[in-house]
Write a structure and sequence with these properties.
There is one protein chain. This protein is an alpha/beta fold. It folds into 3 domains: 2-80, no CATH class; 88-96 and 360-473, Aspartate Aminotransferase, domain 1 (Alpha-Beta Complex), CATH 3.90.1150; 106-354, Aspartate Aminotransferase, domain 2 (3-Layer(aba) Sandwich). It contains 20 helices and 17 strands. The two termini are 31 Å apart. The model has no long low-confidence stretch (mean pLDDT 93). Bound molecules: pyridoxal-5'-phosphate. The site of pyridoxal-5'-phosphate (PLP) has 15 residues, from helix 8 and strand 10. This is L-seryl-tRNA(Sec) selenium transferase. It is found in: Cytoplasm. Pathway: Aminoacyl-tRNA biosynthesis; selenocysteinyl-tRNA(Sec) biosynthesis; selenocysteinyl-tRNA(Sec) from L-seryl-tRNA(Sec) (bacterial route): step 1/1. Its cofactor is pyridoxal 5'-phosphate.
Length: 475
């Protein structure tokens, strides 16, 4: 193949070709970008010819020039593809951490866009005409929504935990039950974040049981805090015991300056118990039990943008706001806009109707059944075997691990390819479709599919099932 080296055209020859103009127009890129990519591809092909790694068969159908242009086209198409992009979540898992957790309400999206487009009063007090604080913008709404004396917002809940430990318990002892030393999503570990913060972890109790006296016996003059962590992504069952927040509060009240802080993880503002889903307490119930501080995510059950919300006693929140780290962990105007509108939706009683997270978790069987029927009807294809089934979906995002909500799904077998191959093709389709696999079948769970996505979903399946020249396919 080395003789082909002499056939590699110089870049300037390609630059003056019609094809160059066509490519420039197609991808709307300046000439110099295209020249650079041509040069890269020529270099790569030269190397492959020298190493003899370029497939000989390619030359049965294509000339060297064709191959160069195909690769240039491919690289430009890849570049043009949005890097962060919407995917169709067919897993049924509403709070899918890998798929961006909560979807925002239309109202929240509108508010974010409006604030992003113009200047804003982010740190400007319009009443007094002087510098304001971004902490003041939605504190009132947070207090209203949680019943707390004071509140603030940081980048995410991990940041909230870190700030609280660092600002209030550095070089002091923090008591945590061994049953609550959790790891969430592989990157948040209570013990590690504690170490990082400079607070000293004091473990009490056992994995399955921790009693009030365990906490009581661990209190020394160096104890600053009792931390209760919501065991978000697992459930201990059987012979278990943990101490209720109000008992910890009573215990702490017998000691000066002992803070009770609860990391709620998800922190729900909607009472899922009222629709018989799980036993997650609402934030207000925890605040009412008298804890000093709680923190929770903005983009889990709350259904808002990524954020960490801290609520509780004014004394502590004031200290947190003043800490240098609060500046490091602060949120931007878009987050505040999205969170503000999400909170307003709760306060106006519209969560079930307007917040996609809540709406999807309580989505009715009838709607999902309709979608499943529509899908099966429209996807009528010889190569496909489709079955409608009743099953369960998970809430996800490390929330309500023991709760399975009844759902309607369709199982799919595509003749001639494995479920894994079908899933791989769907994932690489534009728009990508992310599915579950169960018993060697691809599963589409309609809990997380919106009506407006149905058309793309069906088109995506038809597209990947009927295409036969798939490259780079693994089993
Ligand atoms: C999810 C979670 C966190 C981390 O929250 P992020 O908002 O993802 O940073 C911390 N603690 C608990 C208990 C959680 O469930």
């Amino acid at each position: 193949m080395k003789h082909l080296l002499r056939e590699i055209p110089p870049v300037h020859e390609l630059q003056v070709s019609d094809k160059f103009q066509q490519v420039m127009k197609k991808f709307d890129q300046p000439a110099q970008n295209i020249t650079k990519i041509i040069q890269n591809q020529i270099n790569a092909i030269r190397e492959e010819l020298i190493q003899e790694t370029l497939s000989k068969q390619l030359f049965n159908n294509y000339s060297l020039i064709d191959i160069i242009w195909q690769r240039v086209d491919g690289q430009l198409a890849d570049f043009a593809q949005e890097k962060i992009t919407n995917v169709i979540n067919a897993t049924g898992t509403v709070l899918h951490t890998n798929l961006g957790r909560a979807r925002l309400s239309n109202q929240a999206i509108d508010h974010i866009v409006k604030v992003a487009r113009g200047y804003s009063n982010l740190e400007y007090n319009l009443k007094e005409g002087k510098r304001g604080s971004r902490h003041d913008i939605i504190e009132g709404l947070l207090k209203e929504a949680t019943g707390a004396e004071a509140a603030m917002v940081v980048n995410n809940n991990a940041a909230a935990v870190y700030l609280i430990l660092r600002a209030l318990a550095k070089e002091k002892e923090v008591i945590v039950s061994r049953g609550q030393l959790v790891e969430i999503g592989g990157s948040f570990r209570v013990s590690s974040i504690m170490e990082e913060s400079g607070a000293h972890l004091v473990e009490v109790g056992t994995t399955n049981k921790t009693h009030l006296y365990d906490y009581e016996q661990a209190i020394t003059e160096d104890t600053r805090m009792i931390l209760k962590v919501h065991t978000s992504n697992f459930k201990t069952i059987g012979f278990t015991e943990s101490v209720e927040t109000d008992s910890l509060v009573s215990l702490a009240n017998q000691h000066q300056q002992l803070i009770v802080y609860e990391d709620l993880g998800s922190g729900s503002l909607f009472d899922f118990k009222s629709v018989r889903i799980g036993d997650e307490p609402v934030v207000r119930e925890i605040i009412n039990s008298g804890v000093d501080l709680v923190s929770f995510s903005g983009d889990k059950l709350l259904g808002g943008p990524q954020a960490g919300i801290i609520a509780g006693k004014k004394e502590w929140i004031a200290q947190l706001k003043k800490h240098q780290l609060a500046r490091v962990l602060r949120v931007d105007k878009m987050t505040l806009a999205g969170l503000e509108t999400t909170l307003r939706t709760y306060l106006a009683g519209g969560a079930e109707e307007h917040l996609p997270t809540i709406r999807d978790i309580i989505k009715s069987r009838e709607i999902m059944e309709d979608q499943a029927n529509q899908f099966v009807h429209q996807l009528n294809h010889d190569l496909l075997d489709l079955q409608i089934e009743e099953s369960f979906s998970q809430v996800g995002g490390g929330t309500m691990p023991d709760v399975e909500v009844p759902t309607v799904l369709v199982t799919i077998i595509s003749k001639g390819i494995t479920a894994q191959q079908l899933a791989n093709r769907l994932r690489q389709h534009v728009p990508p479709i992310v599915v579950r696999i169960k018993d060697d079948k691809v599963v589409v769970d309609f809990r997380t599919i919106e009506l407006r996505e149905m058309e793309d979903l069906v088109a995506g399946f038809l597209d990947v099932v009927t295409k036969n020249n798939v490259t780079n396919e693994t089993t």
